[in-house]
User: What shape does this take?
Amino acid sequence: MDYILEMRNISKTFGEVQALRRVDFKVARGEIVGLLGDNGAGKSTLIKIVTGYHHPDPDGEMYFKQQKIEHLSVAQARRLGIETVYQERALADLQTLWRNIFMGREMTTQLGFLSVKKMRKETEKLMVGSMGFTSSAVIPDSVIKTFSGGEKQGVAIVRALHFDAELIILDEPTMGLSLSETKKLLSFVRDIKEADKSCIFIDHNVFHVYSVADRVVVLDRGAVAGELMTKDITLEQLMDKMYRVAQTGHLNGNGPDAA
Ligand SMILES: Nc1ncnc2c1ncn2[C@@H]1O[C@H](COP(=O)(O)OP(=O)(O)OP(=O)(O)O)[C@@H](O)[C@H]1O
Ligand SMILES: [Mg+2]
Assistant: This one.
């Protein structure tokens, strides 16, 4: 397997709280991994370690594309192609779509001037080709403020893919989205796989996770309770298993109805 991310024996303690205990976690290239677990299970903590925001306790090991990573910083994580899409902080609200796409990576002419024309044109291509914005109301000069939460995240995902992100992380991306926005967002997530890039997808809604993830990893009180391939299981079975995790702390607990 071509693993883009490998985490071994990752623990994280905040004072008295052990947020993660001996977590092993992997993401393959072109794979969407759903991360499930109750409130406080450690999902956000785990991805904050991947993005360099938190540092794990000393025993753990992390590899990105088979390279051992030590003292990962947020800047280094971004350089490696690890992108997090935040619903609220994804984009600059008062700026235009094209400026948002190229923010920090502006195209310039040979003389070093901004190539506004080129950036507008490229944005138009992305809008039609990748974002599926067919509405005539959306043009490269549209101001982001008018976009829905789902569209904003879609733009951020398209931007990340355009600039060769290797691993895109979404933590509760459907929170506060309408049904149709959620649908759109889930299709953006599938585009990540289509582009042969990887994704970690966190959502409390098991249905959302099931509908996009290749593999689901369940965390329970900071530990991995188990994992399974979505193709091997129905949504109902997955939901049953989630109830079992809540009761026993394991995916395959020996409850009366254990599989
Ligand atoms: N910076 C911090 N300082 C102290 N404790 C923290 C910190 N961040 C997280 N925790 C604790 O670690 C545990 C795991 O939190 P985390 O945010 O990772 O859970 P989560 O699975 O993302 O939950 P949710 O589904 O509610 O977002 C919780 O008990 C939380 O209170
Ligand atoms: Mg969280």
Observations:
- The pocket of magnesium ion (ligand 2) is lined by residues 43-44, 171 (CB under 6 Å).
- The helical segments are 43-50, 74-80, 97-102, 116-131, 149-162, 179-194, 206-212, 235-248.
- The two ends are 28 Å apart (CA to CA).
